[in-house]
Fold:
Amino acid sequence: MDFNDTPEEAKFRSEAREWLTANARQRDTSNAKAGVSTKSEAERLVRAKEWQVKKAEAGYAAITWPTEYGGRGGTSIQSVIYSQEEANFDVPRGFFEIGLGMCIPTMMKWATPEQNERYVKPALFGEEVWCQLFSEPAAGSDVAGLRTKCERDGDDWIINGQKVWTSGAHFCDYGIIVTRSDPTVPKHKGLTFFFLDMKTPGIEIRPIKQISGGAGFNEVFFNDVRVPDSQRLGDVGEGWKVSLTTLMNERLAIGGGSGVDYEELLKLARETELEEGPAIKDSNVREKLADWYVQSQGLKYTKFRTLTALSKGQVPGAESSIGKIVSGPKMQDLGSFAMDIQGQGGILQDGDESPMGAAFQNQWLGAAGYRIAGGTDEILRNIVSEQVLGLPQDIRVDKKVPFNELASSSKK
Amino acid sequence: MNFDFSDDQKMLKDQARKFLEDKCSYDDVRTVLESDASHNDDVWQGLCDLGFTGAAIPEEYGGLGLSALELCVVAEELGRSAAPVPFSSSIYMAAEALKLGGSEELKQAWLPKLASGEVIGTFAAAEGPAAPSPRNTKTSFAKGKLNGRKLPVPDGETASVAIVLANTGGTGEQAVSLVVVDLTQSSVTRASIETIDPTRGHAEISFDDADATLLGEAGEGWSLMKRIEAGAAVLVAFEQVGGTEAALNMAKDYSLDRYAFGRQIGSYQAIKHKLADMYVKLELARSNAYYGAMVLAQEGADLELAAASARISATEAYRFAAQECIQVHGGIGFTWEANPQFHYRRSKLLALSLGSASRWKNRLVAELEKSNVA
Structure:
């Protein structure tokens, strides 16, 4: 039992590290604020596209993709090793993950060879950015309850409706979208899937301001948006099946977690005086610190177990499903508790006055969203209990009922 | 990355599991619960015969000379079956204490017998309902004689040898030492004592000028005990992981079997989410236990930290799984005839056997402070 690479893994790691050293700047770990870019999003996108070209040319942009699509034809463990190494460098992130992780794999499975010829490489080289249009105001956890409709019009389809929580829609070139083609059949059966040009007339994009102040997501409105039938993925009414390809391709969530953790809480507890003395001597603080340390370590070594399976060429066990169930509430609770330690001053969200640039306050606000995004705590527990433990699905009152006869918030 | 047990270790685990499934059903555990027996001797003899007791004892002392990892996989299976045997007292505590601090003479005297199971060993620290400390250890050792009273002592009725924490007159942490005592001498009296988990026998032991021998140096008892506890914490964590998985499976099976309001109770989210939470805690505990095992086997410098993490994580997982297993069962789970009680009892016993979670959290943070991780 050890954490060592196999000889092949070690060789790949050193190649990746060598390439990164030659092409990127080492991350400055001494400064908590380092790596947080002050540049505008447009400037960061330009930089990210430049980096993506280098990465794709060197064969690191899509390690597990087949070579005919410009990938390396490598293994999952190589992909993880590259990510681990890249995490030590200050490189742009956050623009291509959804496109390359979810949209393009869906295209590869469902689009024509000519379409893949046209779209895959430009996405890989960062020339075109993709987004995913699934969630709607009335379809979050129950995404198959979506209402954006498509109607056939000759060789085209006309799309009307609204999508929400679309990351990056405002800088994306293309998107994949699931819509309702037939409301007279049960909800999973009446869906049809397309890809589309985000500059198509009739698409309107508005940013959503979050409680944390940021606006990384958008609402996307569709008013008589015309899409050619050739851009349909899968058969009419088979959109749910296509959606599952997208959802199953959610990137293997490996790599360091973000945000403040027990190290920062320990630092805060050492530096903060409570009425009775230093916070680090307070038994309540110590118990909490130990609990979060143990959770962090547990998640870290759970990932190591997953990596071990990948390293041996096995399919990872179900243990990898626990990550966000643990990390979401932990981020929120740890942020909240660290604010408690700061007493009345804990309400300050001031980059200069608040400890560590208000990192705890920012995390407390942001974590409320993290517990919802990409599967709520509750949906994730359903997934664990049904798919890992084999418990029965909830009784679905909507399973056999035509979509247009279902109860909803507006029609009870 | 090779963060897993080897195929040989997994085979050993399977062997332990098959033996225990066969010989140590809940009915076999129940025979101890419902009798005055301190343990189930058939199960114990079987484990000794299979060589599990001697797995991590060096060959020159009659063991198999394998590593702590082999003990860990056996421990998980012992925990899964809530085995009513003195394995932890005799092996994780007494044998490991002798391996770590014993003179050649002491090792020769006791390790071969512990390895074969010919004698049972134990470790006696507590003196009643308070956490042991150098300050509150009243049992004393001077001029080769031990005097005082220890309780609860696990397997104290059946053990032939005990490692005892005793005051030897120093100050602070140096006030205490560990001594080895033959419990069969006439100056030792013992009586069974009632606990929350009668499937594991416990006793009160009094020493009245009993002959004893120092284990390690005088005054180093506290630090040596902490090192012994750290190793045992990892092994017990594997028992707790096994017990957690058993309680989760028992609750899951019942939730699929039991119908209420016209459907399986396992189809209600209140139950599903509870079981999902058990699973999450189980996997965190397993991962922390694996790391503890690796560090213990490599005798790594961060054993204290790794052991505390394994113990805290596994204690929490087993606590939650065992108590919620009864809850999922509803009324039947509270009856004497049903099996969830075995894990409810055992989870609390193990949670306290090496000191409470609070104590270990304090130990963990003390290590974090030292390591200057911030």
